[in-house]
Each structure stands twice: as structure tokens, then as C-alpha cells.
């Protein structure tokens, strides 16, 4: 074939590819039936919901299926969907397990891309190291996937630390409101509207469940089952028992707030004891050798000068 024929074939292929891309983008930008109908049936349960990004986005149409397939593969390899779901609830992250797996895949892809970029630059200077960098890219992908799981655990710990810091104040406010004559629901409503934080958000969900008709004891029992903090679980169970059996609620809340403050004081003392050990490391390995050197070095120099 002559160069003119090759140019015509390549131009036709380029034009056909451009037409396919334009046609596909127009189809993706067209609102789907589910997008038009679902806003009017939001009260119906959505079982198996696995959204990635809005369905009208071209990015979802192009990269959505591969990411979902990769997320399913990560789920089959790692497992532990129940643990992930519980940690998402404890971290107050409104995502499904599948959405979290997609995020893990994205973190892995970013790590893979970074390692691949470095590998390509190094391979250009040393062509024999391509296989080694391929292994490094695979390790980077796995590390990115595991890093997202570790970050979720750190999010859970950070949120629970904030809850423990807020708990004594919230418990005292509830106790004061109940002692002033308000009902548990009214006291809970007052505290939720006057405070802000992670524990207040959990109590706001409990209040919303109570207002939809759920018994107070059942709502606090579910809060005790979801939380991962024993102190908060005892707090919720104590309120549930006090409401069901009619025991003095204010005394229970004051006692629990005092227990939390005492536990925080003990933890602070234990942390200070651990930090004291770590503080000895620079003293022993840095300050003490320098002090000994300053003390004995002049004597060593003097002996070397006076010896015949």
C-alpha cells in the first residue's frame, strides 16, 4: 500500500474512534430512568446499594466497572466484611463495605502509579531492572490497599478518643437537665442542641430513633451494641435500665461521669509513666556520653602532652 492509502486508513480509524467516544459521552450524559425516579421513592429501602460516583458521570461509565470488579476481588482476597462494616459504623463514615473496597483499590492504584513512574525513570537508565520494579509496583499496590485499612482503624481511634474527651461533660449536662425535672427525652434534646461533637452526633441519632416511635431503652441498647467503647456502652445501658425500671437517672449519670474522669486520670498517669521511660533514652545515649567526654577528654589530652 502506498503512503496515501496508509494515511487514509489511519485517518478513518481516528475519525471512527472519535465518533465512538462522542456517541458514548452523549449516552452517559443522558439522565437514566433510575436517576429520574429514585428522588421520589427515597423512603424505599435500597438493598445491595453499591454506588461509586453519580451514574451520569463519564468517569463512572469508563472506570466504574473495572473499579467495582477490582473491589470485589479485594473483598474475596481480604474478607472481613463484618469487621469493616463495624469499623465504618464506629468511625461514623456513611459508606458501604463495597464503597470502602473501591477506595482501597484507588489507594492501591495511586501507590502503583507512583512506583511505576519511579520505575520507568530508573529503567531508562538501567534497563536490566524492569522485573525488579514490576515486583516493587505490585508491592506498592498491596501496600496502598492495606494503608487504607490502617487509616480506617486510625479514624476509629481518633473518633473514640474525642468521644471519651466529650463524655464527662455530656453526662453532667444530662444529669443536670434530669435533676432539674426534665424527662430523659427532653434532657437529651436539650443536650444535643446545646453541644457539638462526636458523642452529640450519636445521641442525635438516638433522639431521632426515639422520635420515630422506638422505645427509649431499645434505642440506647442499640447505641450500646454499636459503640466500641465500654464506658459509652455502660452509659447507654445505664440510661436504658434507669428508664425501664424507674431508678434515679441523675445519680447514675453523675456516677458514670465520675468514673470516666477517674479512668482518664489513670490513663494520663500511665501515659506519663511510659513517657518517662522514653525521656531517659536521649539522656542515657546522648547527654551522658557527651558529659563523660567533656569530663575525661581534657585529662586524656593532658596525659598525652606530659608523657615523655
Describe this structure in words.
This protein has helices at 3-29, 33-37, 58-78, 81-90, 97-125, 130-179, 184-194, 198-211, 216-226, 230-245, 249-306. By secondary structure, the protein is an all-alpha fold. α5 runs antiparallel to α6 and α6 (130-179) crosses α11 (249-306). The termini are far apart.
Secondary structure elements and pairings:
Elements: H1 3-29, H2 33-37, H3 58-78, H4 81-90, H5 97-125, H6 130-179, H7 184-194, H8 198-211, H9 216-226, H10 230-245, H11 249-306
Protein name: Type II secretion system F family protein
Pfam families: T2SSF
Keywords: Cell membrane, Membrane, Transmembrane, Transmembrane helix
Largest sheet: none
Q: Tally of extended strands?
A: 0
Low-confidence stretches: 43-58
- SSE run: HHHHHHHHHHH
- Strand-residue fraction? under 5%
Quaternary structure type: single chain
Structural class: mainly alpha
Mean pLDDT: 79
Helix share bin: over 70%
- Which of globular, elongated, flat, extended, rod-shaped describes the shape? flat
Distance N to C terminus: 97 Å
* Rg, nearest Å: 31 Å
**Count the helices. How many?**
11
Key terms:
308 residues
Please provide a brief summary of the model.
Keywords: Cell membrane, Membrane, Transmembrane, Transmembrane helix. It contains eleven helices and no strands.
